[in-house]
Design brief:
The protein is α+β, with helices and mostly antiparallel strands and 131 residues long. It is built from four helices and six strands. It starts with 5 loop residues before the first strand and ends with a strand. Bound molecules: coenzyme A. Coenzyme A binds next to strand 3, helix 3 and helix 4.
Length: 131
């Protein structure tokens, strides 16, 4: 269980709260990634002392995209983890090429391409150092 690695974004409409985005992450010491299947069992791979905060998925409701919600969600989650756990030294994720600029704007750097990540697309292993 890693509840602090799961954040949601909410908005209020007609007096009701509505969930408009979420980000999921786990911690581990892994460095070798080839295919999504290698990491897909996130609960088993999670290590509460891991130095690597791995972003599993980030999503924003289509009606609320391009308003800063995704960037805010991801940066808030990372900043909270950094403050809470001094043992985390970096954040990693695997992105599709279309989102490379999005993550670069948030301080992530390309580490390497993962040509076999998905059956239909390569992935980009990206990393942001927290030290
Ligand atoms: C990726 C995602 C989370 C971004 O959320 P968001 O709230 O729109 O992001 P922000 O508003 O903070 O940032 C917007 C910037 O992200 C980039 N971006 C967002 N969606 C994009 C897309 N589909 N293609 C290319 N760039 C995109 C653009 O640079 C955009 O800046 P611009 O509006 O000035 O062009 C959202 O598009 C989404 O949920 N996509 C589907 C799920 C997904 O692919 N998740 C990523 C898994 S690695």
């Amino acid at each position: 269980m890693f509840p602090s690695g799961f954040w949601v974004a909410e908005t209020k409409g007609n007096g009701k709260k509505m969930l408009i985005g979420y980000v999921m992450s786990c911690r581990w010491n892994r460095e070798e990634y080839h295919r999504f299947e290698d990491v897909a069992d996130f609960p088993s791979n999670h290590n509460p002392r891991g130095a690597n905060l791995y972003v599993i998925f980030l999503a924003v409701h289509p009606d609320f995209r391009r308003q800063g919600v995704g960037s805010e969600l991801l940066s808030s989650m990372i900043e909270a983890q950094r403050k809470k756990y001094t043992g985390i030294s970096k954040v990693q994720l695997v992105a599709l090429d279309t989102l490379r600029n999005f993550y670069e704007r948030m301080g992530f750097k390309l580490i390497r391409e993962l040509p076999e990540w998905l059956s239909y697309a390569a992935g980009l292993l990206m990393q942001k150092s927290l030290r």
